[in-house]
């Protein structure tokens, strides 16, 4: 019996690597459909969200992978052709220039431009407890700071490009991994496994060189592979909604104000629409979801406009400090501007989701790599979460291209560790900075209010530091 199994395994591998003739296709389909015989696949990607789909699309358009077999497992059913709705949806991303470059590399950015997006040319961030603020202008970098795009539009654009690629990537909808057999485990014949086997809900077993976990912050791949993970509950919820503005304007400014309960942000969608992301306490979030529309609109405007939390002592010290700084660095005063007035909220656009920090101590193991929220999840106050995930895609694609080009095993830990090192050197400082800002700004303790106000005001006066901050967020 062992000899028969070995024959089928060798035959399956042979037909996977060879040029498919009509007869070989028939045999290959027979072997692949037999659940007791593992099907050989070069790469399995678990999770077909924005990051997982982008990983599949990057590999699909990568010439060096055109002879490889890649499978994308997507638990959701196939949605059919995407039709752009008239109304904007309430989940959006602020795509960085680096993310746009990735999307451009396989044509998804052109798809997005055919649908809709809104550039951010200026950003203003300010403190509710003082007059301290920082602004980032288009003139600082001679480029757009970011692009606000709906999640559904991003995913649709990526899937359009994936479907237009060659046949080296198969998408298995309504399918998810149910169990795994990892390298080093003992198989049915008493031998150590060299590959990783993914048992799938459709009955197949996929034996692969590399499993990429892109299955979100509750990642099954991460959990079943026993990655050590750090979790922290912020005890906050993000309230999102699509808001109507008082008048049609250019609307290319992103506004963010730090309240003592969490930051509130207004992101441009169109001339008269903006996207709200309001991080607040669970109690306030639940209240914001059920109050009448006019009360909700009043609450949003009040959160941006009221001065109830101003610290008088900090205000006086900051005013004196500003005069001294102006004499030392005569760069011109920057006046605080107020965001446009909100007059309405799109029907049924209000929603909320809990906020937490998740970080895997490692991003790789033999034949396994984690990307996106499966590896790291951060607070949305800087809009960097999905950009970090797309950065993972760019980095892993580059490293796998180099490995396969050299004839190496793409699941080799040597190459995967290079990916982990590069990404952790970028992700961990970003995560630490955002977590620190979140903790620093969710207090009205006067000494800390003064400290952060002086720091923010100083940073705003030093253009080279501001430019460096934005450049760092763009890579």
From TrEMBL:
<feature type="domain" description="FAD-binding">
    <location>
        <begin position="349"/>
        <end position="427"/>
    </location>
</feature>
<dbReference type="GO" id="GO:0016712">
    <property type="term" value="F:oxidoreductase activity, acting on paired donors, with incorporation or reduction of molecular oxygen, reduced flavin or flavoprotein as one donor, and incorporation of one atom of oxygen"/>
</dbReference>
<dbReference type="GO" id="GO:0071949">
    <property type="term" value="F:FAD binding"/>
</dbReference>
<comment type="subunit">
    <text>Component of a multi-subunit COQ enzyme complex.</text>
</comment>
<comment type="similarity">
    <text>Belongs to the UbiH/COQ6 family.</text>
</comment>
<comment type="function">
    <text>FAD-dependent monooxygenase required for two non-consecutive steps during ubiquinone biosynthesis. Required for the C5-ring hydroxylation during ubiquinone biosynthesis by catalyzing the hydroxylation of 4-hydroxy-3-(all-trans-polyprenyl)benzoic acid to 3,4-dihydroxy-5-(all-trans-polyprenyl)benzoic acid. Also acts downstream of coq4, for the C1-hydroxylation during ubiquinone biosynthesis by catalyzing the hydroxylation of 2-methoxy-6-(all-trans-polyprenyl)phenol to 2-methoxy-6-(all-trans-polyprenyl)benzene-1,4-diol.</text>
</comment>
<dbReference type="InterPro" id="IPR018168">
    <property type="entry name" value="Ubi_Hdrlase_CS"/>
</dbReference>
<dbReference type="InterPro" id="IPR036188">
    <property type="entry name" value="FAD/NAD-bd_sf"/>
</dbReference>
<dbReference type="InterPro" id="IPR010971">
    <property type="entry name" value="UbiH/COQ6"/>
</dbReference>
<keyword id="KW-0503">Monooxygenase</keyword>
<comment type="pathway">
    <text>Cofactor biosynthesis; ubiquinone biosynthesis.</text>
</comment>
<keyword id="KW-0274">FAD</keyword>
<keyword id="KW-0809">Transit peptide</keyword>
<feature type="domain" description="FAD-binding">
    <location>
        <begin position="40"/>
        <end position="282"/>
    </location>
</feature>
<dbReference type="GO" id="GO:0106364">
    <property type="term" value="F:4-hydroxy-3-all-trans-polyprenylbenzoate oxygenase activity"/>
</dbReference>
<keyword id="KW-0472">Membrane</keyword>
<dbReference type="Pfam" id="PF01494">
    <property type="entry name" value="FAD_binding_3"/>
</dbReference>
<keyword id="KW-0999">Mitochondrion inner membrane</keyword>
<dbReference type="InterPro" id="IPR002938">
    <property type="entry name" value="FAD-bd"/>
</dbReference>
<dbReference type="GO" id="GO:0031314">
    <property type="term" value="C:extrinsic component of mitochondrial inner membrane"/>
</dbReference>
<dbReference type="InterPro" id="IPR051205">
    <property type="entry name" value="UbiH/COQ6_monooxygenase"/>
</dbReference>
<protein>
    <recommendedName>
        <fullName>Ubiquinone biosynthesis monooxygenase COQ6, mitochondrial</fullName>
        <ecNumber>1.14.15.45</ecNumber>
        <ecNumber>1.14.15.46</ecNumber>
    </recommendedName>
</protein>
<keyword id="KW-0560">Oxidoreductase</keyword>
<keyword id="KW-0831">Ubiquinone biosynthesis</keyword>
<dbReference type="InterPro" id="IPR000689">
    <property type="entry name" value="UbQ_mOase_COQ6"/>
</dbReference>
<keyword id="KW-0285">Flavoprotein</keyword>
<keyword id="KW-0496">Mitochondrion</keyword>
<dbReference type="GO" id="GO:0120538">
    <property type="term" value="F:2-methoxy-6-polyprenolphenol 4-hydroxylase activity"/>
</dbReference>
């Amino acid at each position: 019996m062992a000899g028969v199994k070995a024959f089928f395994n060798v035959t399956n591998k042979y037909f996977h690597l060879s040029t498919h003739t009509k007869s070989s296709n028939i045999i290959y389909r027979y072997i692949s459909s037999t659940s007791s015989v593992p099907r050989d696949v070069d790469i399995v990607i678990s999770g077909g969200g924005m990051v997982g789909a982008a990983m599949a699309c990057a590999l699909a358009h990568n010439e060096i992978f055109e002879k490889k077999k890649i499978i994308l497992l997507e638990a959701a059913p196939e949605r059919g052709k995407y039709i752009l709705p008239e109304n904007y949806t309430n989940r959006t991303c602020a795509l960085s220039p680096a993310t746009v470059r990735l999307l451009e590399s396989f044509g998804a950015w052109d798809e997005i431009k055919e649908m809709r997006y809104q550039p951010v040319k200026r950003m203003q961030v300010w403190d509710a407890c003082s007059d301290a603020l920082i602004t980032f202008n288009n003139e600082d970098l001679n480029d757009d700071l970011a692009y606000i795009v709906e999640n559904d539009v991003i995913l649709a654009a990526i899937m359009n490009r994936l479907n237009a690629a060659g046949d080296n990537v198969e998408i298995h909808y309504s399918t998810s991994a149910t169990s795994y057999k990892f390298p080093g485990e003992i198989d049915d014949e008493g031998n150590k496994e060299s590959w990783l086997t993914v048992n799938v809900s459709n009955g197949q077993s996929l034996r692969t060189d590399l499993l990429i976990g892109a299955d979100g912050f509750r990642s099954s791949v991460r959990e079943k592979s026993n990655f050590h993970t750090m979790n922290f509950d912020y005890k906050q919820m993000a309230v999102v909604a699509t808001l109507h503005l008082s008048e049609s304007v250019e609307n290319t400014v992103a506004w963010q104000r730090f309240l003592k309960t969490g930051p509130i942000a207004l992101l441009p969608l169109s001339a008269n629409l903006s996207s709200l992301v309001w991080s607040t306490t669970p109690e306030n979030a639940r209240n914001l979801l059920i109050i009448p529309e006019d009360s909700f609109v009043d609450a949003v405007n009040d959160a941006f406009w009221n001065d109830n939390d101003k610290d008088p002592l900090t205000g006086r010290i900051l005013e004196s400090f500003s005069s001294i700084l102006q004499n030392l660095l005569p760069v011109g005063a920057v006046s605080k501007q107020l965001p446009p007035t909100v007059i309405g909220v799109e029907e049924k656009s209000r929603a909320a989701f809990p906020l937490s920090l998740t970080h895997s101590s490692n991003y790789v193991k033999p034949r396994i790599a984690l990307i996106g929220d499966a590896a790291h999840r951060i607070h949305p106050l800087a809009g960097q979460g999905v950009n970090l995930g797309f950065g993972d895609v760019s980095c892993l694609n580059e490293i796998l291209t180099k490995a396969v080009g050299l004839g190496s095993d793409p699941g080799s830990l040597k190459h995967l560790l290079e990916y982990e090192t590069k990404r952790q050197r970028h992700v961990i400082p970003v995560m630490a900075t955002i977590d620190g800002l979140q903790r620093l700004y969710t207090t009205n303790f006067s000494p800390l209010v003064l400290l952060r106000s002086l720091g923010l005001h100083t940073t705003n006066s030093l253009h080279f530091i501001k430019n460096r901050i934005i450049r760092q967020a763009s890579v």
